[in-house]
Design brief:
two-stranded antiparallel sheet; six-stranded mixed barrel; 18% strand; alpha+beta; 56% helix
Length: 406
């Protein structure tokens, strides 16, 4: 034990002897570890932000779309032709277990007006369960009821963008907004959600009972889609399979290739949106890891130079009784110390840079404690890996040749 402690003291004394060289050697590790911490933090923050945006679309949600139209060699997208009915939505809610809410849905764009202001916006026809499915609370007023749905009431709930455009300086609740020349009373204002991951303003919307949209606005007898919420995320896939089978039976479809509807679950949307983010995060992390490699090579280079410069010192130590293992440990400890101190300072630098980015650019930054531990261990491993060869070379020097070295 005394021999090991003595070796450590000798190694630290050698590092203090050339302070500028020691600092410059550690700089590579500081930059490498700091870059990894900062990139991981920013990448995880971007991923968390995307996940929050995805969750804002709804929790445990499935969407069943009407079929696509075909004519004259031209094919429309999902929802371009009405193949879903209210009976389909009611059957799904009645016959499939694991479902907590269902909202029949119709959509359109309309010119709306209030007083001297007008605006073109999306109009959604939904059931009261829509707000539960989308996890979308109100900041003012209340949602419409099942009675409003049955009576096709002229009531509406508006998003923040619509409020800003039509009622910039007054409370919209209780006011009248005309949708396609039909007067609707505003009974509630939605909590702002901002932009969706694909850039759409979620707050630029008016929501009315689906019966009101079908009968009073668009003259529809079919639905464009059906929103479904499952009790848990684990039920998304089995419920999706059951809904697919039920709708096929109701539409008398024999082969899957003849489906006149489409269905997508929220996890598929989340995977599609976050895939690009993950790819970019890994790319940036890989580039940052190159800095670690460069830092390790710098340590090896300096240690090789140090072995050459201290050849005579090594010979003297061996002549007075030091063994090859002592020399090996001395230089290995020097390399690991350089690497670990550089790693610790690099972690602090990365954390500081990440917080600065968060404050200046208002970007979310998430740095798991595990990654900090990994960065520290990696810095130590880099020191061992790149320091072993110079240390071994030093330990294998012949004492007589080392003493003769000038």
């Amino acid at each position: 034990m005394k021999r090991i402690l003595a070796t450590i003291r000798i190694a630290l004394r050698a590092l203090r002897r050339n302070k500028m060289r020691t600092v410059l050697t550690m700089l590579g590790m500081i930059i490498g570890v700091g870059a990894v911490i900062a990139v991981v933090g920013i990448g995880n923050g971007a991923k968390a932000q995307l996940e929050d945006q995805i969750s804002s679309l709804g929790r445990n949600m499935l969407t069943v779309y009407s079929g696509s139209s075909r004519g004259g060699g031209v094919r429309g997208g999902w929802g371009s032709i009405g193949t879903l009915t209210l009976d389909d939505a009611e059957s799904v809610q009645r016959e499939i277990s694991g479902i907590t809410a269902v909202s029949p849905e119709v959509r359109g764009r309309s010119q709306i007006a209030a007083g001297n202001e007008n605006w073109n916006t999306q109009v959604f026809g939904e059931s009261p369960e829509y707000f539960q499915i989308r996890q979308w609370p109100l900041v003012q007023g209340s949602i419409f009821t099942e009675q409003d749905v049955r009576s096709a009431a002229k009531v509406a709930i508006v998003g923040k963008t619509v409020v800003d455009q039509l009622f910039p300086s007054e409370n919209p609740v209780g006011e009248i907004v005309r949708i396609k020349n039909s007067p609707f009373k505003i009974i509630g204002v939605l909590k702002p959600k901002g932009f969706a991951p694909w850039g759409q303003d979620q707050d630029d919307v008016i929501i009315v009972p689906y019966t009101s949209a079908m009968k009073r606005l668009y003259g529809l007898t079919t639905l464009q889609s059906i929103l479904i919420q499952t009790a848990t995320a684990d039920l998304l896939t089995p419920v999706q399979d059951q809904v697919t089978e039920l709708v096929r039976q109701r539409h008398r479809i024999v082969r899957a290739t003849d489906d006149d509807f489409g269905i997508r679950n929220q996890q598929e949307v989340a995977d599609a949106v976050t895939a690009q983010s993950k790819t970019m995060a890994w790319l940036l992390a890989s580039i940052a890891c190159v800095s670690l490699l460069v830092g390790g090579i710098g340590i090896m280079n300096i240690m090789l130079v140090s072995v050459t410069e201290r050849t005579r010192e090594i010979g003297i130590r061996m002549a007075v009784g030091a063994r090859g293992g002592d020399i090996l440990w001395q230089f290995l400890i020097e390399a690991v110390t350089l690497s670990m101190i550089g790693g610790i300072v690099g972690i602090g630098t990365g954390l500081g840079f990440s917080k600065a980015i968060e404050m200046i650019k208002h970007w979310p930054v998430v740095i798991p404690v595990l990654w900090i531990a990994v960065a520290f261990l990696v810095s130590a491993a880099v020191g061992v890996f790149f320091g072993f060869y110079p240390a071994r070379k030093a330990s294998q020097l012949d004492p007589i040749d080392a003493l003769r070295y000038e």
